[in-house]
Every structure is written in structure tokens, then in C-alpha cells.
Amino acid sequence: MKEKLVEEWLIRARERAGIDQAYGQWLISQGHQILWLGHSRTEFGKDIISADRDGQFHAFQTKDEDIDLKELRRINDQITELVEVPIVHPRVPPGSPHLAHLVTSGLFKEEAIARIRAMNEGWAIKGRPVVEIIGRNDLIPRFVGMSDAFWPEKPADIRDFFLSISQTATATLIRKSLVQCFEGCFRLPTKLHGEKRNAWLPSVSCRIIC
Predict the structure, then answer these.
(1) Do 138 and 172 belong to one domain?
(2) Owning domain of residue 188
(3) How many domains does the chain have?
(4) Same domain membership, residue 41 and residue 131
């Protein structure tokens, strides 16, 4: 059931954008030190920069949609910068090697995977880092693995949500149950309505997962 809740959050995050914070929390749980997390004109294809336990630097480009061949071509410059431009950060020695990762809360289509594989072969020949792709199906077990220490067990809203997704239910009903689950656990401000109220949901759901 946890997998279903995480998957639902990832689908919602894909619609509303913003998996950076959640993935940053997962990296921290794996012993990474976050050096940069955000978006700027000088990010050079790197939304998250981290150093792992062994001192190896990592750069991540994050997306919130399915990546097919058309989308891959659209973001080609960002991926090229992710791989070919060294990390620019005060705590990273100039020219330091890094590992490159492309992360999306959506899904990678087969044609996009094939093209990335071909791109990686070309980069490997040149001694460049290759791109690891991380999609929704990879994120689900990672986020579920973080959830045990923070997962509410008793609220009735959690029970009702699990009942709704264990039975035949429409997407609208599941969405309504998920919202009620979040509100029950975190008591969203009752004065928030419409878009302002909905803006709370990705952040609140991240608290459940992370």
C-alpha cells in the first residue's frame, strides 16, 4: 500500500512539479551531502549537486514529466551541460570529475532510453561521465524505503485512503481520499481554498514520504 501512496504522490508531483526536495532528502538518507539544490541560470544542467560518503561528486538534472524522444530532444542542451560542463561550486575543486544523473517523476519511454544509451556510448569513448536515468519506477522503492520511520499508522484518514485504493475506485475518488488523508494528518489551514489550498498538497505529501 505504501507503494501506491508514493506512486500517487509522484504522479501529482509530476503534474504540479517539484521532486527536488524529496530526492534531496533521499540523497541525505544515503549519506550524501547536498552542496546545491535549486534552479538558476548558472546551474549548467545541474539542479542538485552532492558529494557522497566517498567524496565522489554527483550532479542531477530533475524533471517532472514523461521523457520520450521529443522531450529528450527538447532538453538535449541541459543533458549535454549536465555531462560535459564541470561542476561550478566553491566546495568543488575546478575540473573535478562527477557522476551524472537524469531524474524524473515521470516515465522514460523506450525510444528515449535507446537514445540515451547511444549518447552514453559516445561520452564514454571521450572519457566523459555517462548519464544514469532514474524514473518513477526507480523512485518508488527509494521513497518507500525512507517512509518507515515517518509513516502514520493510526489516523482514520490513512485507513480510509488505503480502503479506497484497495477497492475498485475512480481516479477522482482516490484523489479525494488522498487529499483527506493529508488534511487529517497535517490539518491544512481551513481558510485555504482553490489554488492556494492545492499548492499545499505536494509539500504535505512530501512530509509523509520524507
Answers:
(1) no
(2) 156-209
(3) 2
(4) yes
Residue 169 in grid coordinates: 475506485
Q: Which residues of 185-197 are buried (b: 16+ CB within 10 A; e: fewer)?
A: bbeeeeeeeeeee
Summarize pLDDT for 52-88 with one digit per residue, the tens: 999 999 999 999 899 999 999 999 999 999 999 999 9
**Predicted model pTM:** 0.69
Specify whether 142 is located in the same domain as 188. no
Q: Which of 161, 138, 181, 115 is nearest to 1 (CA)?
A: 161
- Percent above pLDDT 70 for the chain: 65
Strand, coil or helix: what is 181? Answer: helix
Shared-domain flag, residues 130 and 162 = no
Cell of 97: 570529475
User: Facing residues of 17 across strands?
Assistant: none
Phi first, then psi: give them for residue 190, nearest 5 degrees: -70, -20
- Residue 151 lies inside a defined structural domain of this protein: no
C-alpha to C-alpha distances, 35 to 87, 90, 107, 112, nearest whole angstrom: 11, 9, 27, 29
Note whether residue 109 is domain-resident.
yes
Alpha-helix runs per DSSP H in the chain: 2-16, 20-29, 69-74, 76-84, 110-125, 136-147, 156-166, 171-186, 194-209
pLDDT digits (tens, 9 = 90+) for 89-144: 999 999 899 999 999 999 999 999 999 999 999 999 999 999 999 999 999 999 88
